Amino acid sequence: MKIENKFSAISSVSKFFDRTLVTPLINFLKQGLSPQKLALCVALGLVLGTFPVLGSTTILCAIAALVFRLNMPAIQMINYFAYPLQLLLFIPFIRAGEIIFNQEPIPLDLELIFTMLRTDIAGAVKSLWWTNMRAIVVWGITVPPAGFVLYHIFVPLFLRLNPPKLEE
Where along the chain do its domains lie? Predict the structure, then answer.
């Protein structure tokens, strides 16, 4: 019985991703979005979606869509799917920034951070600001190669998924 529940859960997750990610991506191709533009939307949506400042990725993706003339719904959809990845990479970006800049690691304990904010708000903001700036530097170092690789992975995939054009 437990095995059936696991398969049911996997099937549900698979259906969710098919309905909310795969089908819309294919629909963008059917609506005339080129595989190259869609690959750029996905690559930029993923890398910008991991920017280590919570709440900023929607704006970053909107700016990228405007600058590169990309499909706004496509890049934002990928950005929203990247949110768990942003949370997953947030602390590694912080820790890598501390290593690169030879800084003492700050404790990432919410209770301690709130205590810092209550006792010395200016010092806490300064400490957290510089910690986040170092994380942004690490992100800026790692993202360009990742975006380049992702783009070159997705172009051939979307070329294969692209529906044939009907000749008139």
Answer: 2-161
